[in-house]
Protein backbone atom coordinates (compact mmCIF):
# COMPACT_ATOMS: atom_id res chain seq x y z
CA UNK A 1 0.00 0.00 0.00
CA UNK A 2 1.31 3.46 -0.97
CA UNK A 3 -0.23 6.52 0.64
CA UNK A 4 0.35 10.23 0.12
CA UNK A 5 -0.30 12.70 2.92
CA UNK A 6 -1.17 16.01 1.33
CA UNK A 7 -1.69 19.24 3.22
CA UNK A 8 -0.33 22.70 3.83
CA UNK A 9 2.83 23.19 5.89
CA UNK A 10 1.81 22.82 9.52
CA UNK A 11 -1.28 20.77 8.68
CA UNK A 12 0.04 17.88 10.78
CA UNK A 13 1.42 15.58 8.09
CA UNK A 14 4.50 14.61 10.09
CA UNK A 15 2.54 13.78 13.24
CA UNK A 16 -0.02 11.66 11.42
CA UNK A 17 2.73 10.04 9.32
CA UNK A 18 4.39 8.69 12.47
CA UNK A 19 1.13 7.03 13.47
CA UNK A 20 0.40 5.62 10.00
CA UNK A 21 3.81 4.03 9.42
CA UNK A 22 3.56 2.30 12.77
CA UNK A 23 0.04 1.05 12.22
CA UNK A 24 0.47 -0.10 8.60
CA UNK A 25 4.18 -0.99 8.48
CA UNK A 26 4.97 1.60 5.82
CA UNK A 27 8.30 3.24 5.00
CA UNK A 28 8.21 6.93 5.88
CA UNK A 29 9.45 9.04 2.98
CA UNK A 30 9.56 12.70 4.02
CA UNK A 31 11.48 14.95 1.63
CA UNK A 32 11.56 17.68 4.32
CA UNK A 33 13.30 15.27 6.75
CA UNK A 34 15.70 14.14 4.00
CA UNK A 35 16.61 17.75 3.20
CA UNK A 36 17.11 18.61 6.89
CA UNK A 37 19.39 15.56 7.19
CA UNK A 38 21.44 16.87 4.23
CA UNK A 39 21.72 20.26 5.94
CA UNK A 40 22.76 18.65 9.23
CA UNK A 41 25.40 16.59 7.39
CA UNK A 42 26.75 19.76 5.73
CA UNK A 43 26.56 18.21 2.23
CA UNK A 44 26.65 20.31 -0.97
CA UNK A 45 23.00 19.50 -1.52
CA UNK A 46 22.23 20.62 2.04
CA UNK A 47 24.06 23.89 1.50
CA UNK A 48 22.02 24.57 -1.65
CA UNK A 49 18.74 23.59 -0.01
CA UNK A 50 19.16 25.56 3.22
CA UNK A 51 18.69 29.06 1.78
CA UNK A 52 15.79 27.94 -0.39
CA UNK A 53 14.01 26.31 2.57
CA UNK A 54 14.58 29.31 4.83
CA UNK A 55 13.05 31.60 2.21
CA UNK A 56 9.94 29.40 2.05
CA UNK A 57 10.45 28.37 -1.59
CA UNK A 58 10.53 24.86 -2.99
CA UNK A 59 13.72 22.95 -3.65
CA UNK A 60 13.96 21.89 -7.32
CA UNK A 61 11.82 19.03 -8.58
CA UNK A 62 14.92 17.30 -9.90
CA UNK A 63 16.55 17.12 -6.45
CA UNK A 64 13.54 15.83 -4.53
CA UNK A 65 12.53 13.34 -7.24
CA UNK A 66 16.07 11.90 -7.19
CA UNK A 67 15.96 11.61 -3.38
CA UNK A 68 12.66 9.70 -3.56
CA UNK A 69 13.80 7.48 -6.45
CA UNK A 70 16.85 6.45 -4.44
CA UNK A 71 14.72 5.36 -1.48
CA UNK A 72 11.78 3.50 -3.00
CA UNK A 73 11.89 -0.05 -1.69
CA UNK A 74 9.73 -3.15 -1.78
CA UNK A 75 7.61 -2.14 1.18
CA UNK A 76 4.69 0.22 0.81
CA UNK A 77 5.51 3.87 1.41
CA UNK A 78 3.94 6.80 3.17
CA UNK A 79 4.84 9.95 1.23
CA UNK A 80 4.94 13.02 3.47
CA UNK A 81 5.63 16.43 1.91
CA UNK A 82 6.09 14.84 -1.51
CA UNK A 83 4.84 15.32 -4.19
CA UNK A 84 4.48 19.10 -3.91
CA UNK A 85 4.18 19.99 -7.61
CA UNK A 86 2.42 18.43 -10.59
CA UNK A 87 5.83 17.57 -12.07
CA UNK A 88 6.69 15.65 -8.88
CA UNK A 89 3.33 13.85 -8.94
CA UNK A 90 3.84 12.79 -12.55
CA UNK A 91 7.37 11.62 -11.82
CA UNK A 92 6.14 9.61 -8.83
CA UNK A 93 3.43 7.93 -10.92
CA UNK A 94 6.09 6.96 -13.48
CA UNK A 95 8.48 5.65 -10.83
CA UNK A 96 5.78 3.52 -9.24
CA UNK A 97 4.34 2.26 -12.53
CA UNK A 98 7.85 1.18 -13.53
CA UNK A 99 7.93 -0.97 -10.40
CA UNK A 100 4.49 -2.46 -11.05
CA UNK A 101 3.06 -0.37 -8.25
CA UNK A 102 0.84 2.67 -7.77
CA UNK A 103 -0.50 5.21 -5.29
CA UNK A 104 -3.53 3.76 -3.53
CA UNK A 105 -4.90 6.67 -1.52
CA UNK A 106 -4.17 10.37 -1.10
CA UNK A 107 -5.21 11.79 2.25
CA UNK A 108 -5.64 15.56 2.23
CA UNK A 109 -5.51 17.20 5.68
CA UNK A 110 -7.57 20.38 5.62
CA UNK A 111 -6.68 23.05 8.18
CA UNK A 112 -7.44 26.79 8.04
CA UNK A 113 -4.54 29.19 7.46
CA UNK A 114 -4.86 31.03 10.78
CA UNK A 115 -4.77 27.79 12.78
CA UNK A 116 -1.70 26.77 10.77
CA UNK A 117 0.17 30.00 11.51
CA UNK A 118 -0.57 29.61 15.24
CA UNK A 119 0.57 25.97 15.27
CA UNK A 120 3.78 26.69 13.41
CA UNK A 121 4.77 29.64 15.57
CA UNK A 122 4.72 27.32 18.59
CA UNK A 123 6.76 24.64 16.75
CA UNK A 124 9.82 26.90 16.45
CA UNK A 125 11.76 25.32 13.54
CA UNK A 126 14.29 27.67 11.88
CA UNK A 127 11.98 28.17 8.87
CA UNK A 128 8.99 28.81 11.14
CA UNK A 129 8.90 32.60 11.45
CA UNK A 130 5.70 34.35 10.44
CA UNK A 131 6.94 35.82 7.14
CA UNK A 132 8.31 32.46 5.96
CA UNK A 133 5.17 30.66 7.06
CA UNK A 134 2.99 33.03 5.00
CA UNK A 135 5.34 32.55 2.04
CA UNK A 136 5.12 28.75 2.37
CA UNK A 137 1.33 28.92 2.54
CA UNK A 138 1.30 30.98 -0.67
CA UNK A 139 3.63 28.48 -2.36
CA UNK A 140 1.33 25.68 -1.19
CA UNK A 141 -1.75 27.37 -2.69
CA UNK A 142 -0.01 28.05 -6.01
CA UNK A 143 2.01 24.87 -6.53
CA UNK A 144 0.71 22.06 -4.32
CA UNK A 145 -3.04 22.69 -4.06
CA UNK A 146 -3.48 21.75 -7.77
CA UNK A 147 -2.50 18.19 -6.80
CA UNK A 148 -5.94 17.74 -5.22
CA UNK A 149 -7.45 17.97 -8.73
CA UNK A 150 -4.80 15.67 -10.12
CA UNK A 151 -5.62 12.92 -7.61
CA UNK A 152 -9.36 13.65 -7.61
CA UNK A 153 -9.35 12.81 -11.33
CA UNK A 154 -7.65 9.50 -10.51
CA UNK A 155 -10.36 8.81 -7.90
CA UNK A 156 -7.77 8.60 -5.13
CA UNK A 157 -8.38 11.76 -3.10
CA UNK A 158 -9.86 11.60 0.40
CA UNK A 159 -10.12 15.02 2.07
CA UNK A 160 -10.49 15.12 5.82
CA UNK A 161 -10.76 17.75 8.53
CA UNK A 162 -7.27 18.16 9.99
CA UNK A 163 -8.24 20.34 12.94
CA UNK A 164 -8.99 19.23 16.49
CA UNK A 165 -7.62 16.37 18.63
CA UNK A 166 -4.78 14.24 17.24
CA UNK A 167 -6.62 10.98 17.99
CA UNK A 168 -9.75 12.21 16.25
CA UNK A 169 -7.75 13.16 13.15
CA UNK A 170 -6.06 9.73 13.14
CA UNK A 171 -9.48 8.09 13.35
CA UNK A 172 -10.71 10.13 10.37
CA UNK A 173 -7.65 9.04 8.38
CA UNK A 174 -8.24 5.39 9.24
CA UNK A 175 -11.87 5.68 8.18
CA UNK A 176 -10.76 7.25 4.88
CA UNK A 177 -8.37 4.35 4.23
CA UNK A 178 -11.12 1.74 4.58
P1 LIG B 1 6.25 21.66 6.03
O1 LIG B 1 5.25 20.70 5.46
O2 LIG B 1 5.95 22.04 7.44
O3 LIG B 1 6.52 22.83 5.14
P2 LIG B 1 8.50 20.01 5.21
O4 LIG B 1 9.46 19.39 6.13
O5 LIG B 1 7.63 19.10 4.39
O6 LIG B 1 7.64 20.94 6.15
O7 LIG B 1 9.24 20.99 4.19
C1 LIG B 1 10.14 22.00 4.61
C2 LIG B 1 10.76 22.69 3.38
O8 LIG B 1 11.55 21.73 2.65
C3 LIG B 1 9.76 23.22 2.35
O9 LIG B 1 9.32 24.52 2.67
C4 LIG B 1 10.61 23.19 1.06
O10 LIG B 1 11.51 24.28 0.98
C5 LIG B 1 11.44 21.93 1.23
N1 LIG B 1 10.77 20.74 0.64
C6 LIG B 1 10.31 19.65 1.32
N2 LIG B 1 9.73 18.76 0.48
C7 LIG B 1 9.82 19.30 -0.76
C8 LIG B 1 9.37 18.90 -2.06
N3 LIG B 1 8.71 17.75 -2.24
N4 LIG B 1 9.63 19.71 -3.11
C9 LIG B 1 10.29 20.86 -2.94
N5 LIG B 1 10.72 21.33 -1.77
C10 LIG B 1 10.49 20.56 -0.67
From TrEMBL:
One of its GO terms (cellular component) is cytoplasm. It comes from the Bacteria. The keyword Amino-acid biosynthesis does not apply. Pathway: Purine metabolism; AMP biosynthesis via salvage pathway; AMP from ADP: step 1/1. It catalyses: AMP + ATP = 2 ADP. Residues 30-59 are annotated as: NMP. It is an enzyme of class 2 (transferase). PANTHER family: NUCLEOTIDE KINASE. Catalyzes the reversible transfer of the terminal phosphate group between ATP and AMP. Plays an important role in cellular energy homeostasis and in adenine nucleotide metabolism. Consists of three domains, a large central CORE domain and two small peripheral domains, NMPbind and LID, which undergo movements during catalysis. The LID domain closes over the site of phosphoryl transfer upon ATP binding. Assembling and dissambling the active center during each catalytic cycle provides an effective means to prevent ATP hydrolysis. This is Adenylate kinase. It comes from Cardiobacterium valvarum.
